[in-house]
Amino acid sequence: MTSTTAAHNLLTDNPELYEARFPDPDRLAGRWTEDCLRRHGTGERVLDMGCGTGRDAAHLHGAGRTVTGADISEAMLAHARTNHPGPVYVRADLHDFDLGRGVFDAVVCLDSALLYCHTNDQLDAFFRSCRRALAPDGLLVAEMRNGAYFLGRVDLLDAPAVNSLAWQGTAYRSHTTLTVDRTAQLLRRTRVWTTDDGSPPVEQRSAWRLLFPQELRHFLATHGFEVLELHDGPGPRTEPPWQEGQLPGDTTDADRLHVVARLTTPH
């Protein structure tokens, strides 16, 4: 059966399906983030940039922080307001946002959201936006794929990853293929969805910037940040995952990258 290419993203257009596909019942990502913020003694005002369905933003709110969740997807924001209340949710583009000058003590950017900045200009705009948003000594906490992992490794590229789930009475199956675009320095993802209800397969494409540890250090330093932590785990999406009380490691070789940086030269 011939697949059709969707104009939108099935997961971000259907936040309930997203949460079913990527469950986080223990709020591991939110707890890891709160641990980072607490260890570095940051203030209570937090911007969750690329907040998605709002689960992590709501966890940080429950931990006593004043949280703004920002995303470009209206569907995600509507879901967050209804299902994960507490934070203020606003629409903003991580490529270039202005939510006020010096109004946050921390900017959080999880689950590779930062890597949707595909070009150097987009990365510069993101870090400039963070710098503008942060108060003096504010923190940036980010978690993402590690570009360095793909230097000579093909285990994530060899074959499609297949996942199945049932949602609203329909069985969904996804086949996800990753390819490296070395010229553009992108990790391209093709995901084909099939269902058991007779609908034609749907093909969707996206990409992440392959950002390397030393490259990330350079961008941060250029925009006035001091790197406090840069490591490949433990984190919320590592294997094994982070557990309460664990301190960051000192290598950057595995497939996830975690950074905590402090703003030393405000805009």
Secondary-structure blueprint:
Layout lengths: L3 E2 L4 H4 L1 H7 L6 H12 L5 E5 L5 H8 L3 E6 L2 H10 L4 E4 L12 E6 L10 H14 E12 L15 E7 L2 E12 L4 E10 L6 E8 L3 H10 L2 E7 L24 E8 L4
Parallel strand pairs: 1-10, 2-3, 2-5, 3-4, 5-6
Antiparallel strand pairs: 6-12, 7-8, 8-9, 9-10, 11-12
Helix pairs in contact: 3-4
Keywords: Methyltransferase, S-adenosyl-L-methionine, Transferase
Pfam family, one: Methyltransf_25
GO molecular function, one term: methyltransferase activity
Question: What are the main properties of this structure?
Answer:
five-stranded mixed β-sheet, N-terminal domain of TfIIb, Rossmann fold, seven-stranded mixed β-sheet, 267 residues
